[in-house]
Amino acid sequence: MPIYEYYCTTCDTIYQFLMRGNRKSQDLSCPKCNTSDLERIMSQFSTTSSKSTSDEDMASDMADINENDPKSMARAVRKMADEMGEDLGPELEHALGRLENGEDPEKIEQELEEMGFGEEGIGAAPSPARDPGLY
Hints:
This protein is an alpha+beta fold.
């Protein structure tokens, strides 16, 4: 039986719903505030990859990274994103291109943090809460 995730904009929370039988998304309501204005979102586990990669394989790949070589770092990030089916977005793609061109990783990281990437802080949007329940 499929489990779908829905985001409640009122509560800023993501909930998981078990969709069994003839249950439809329009029948759902937020478990906390009871609104029916929920947005279905992509589950963290919804993406698939044509490659089968174990945790051991990924750890082995990460062990081969030369932290002093920006190109090596960029290759590793791209490979991991590809294997996980992640879209990096234009800002991170640009940053990886700069790494591949040999620019200073610390300078790139500082600029990304100023744009709101990385640790939550100034300029970073907080993530919505995740309710652990299954409804």
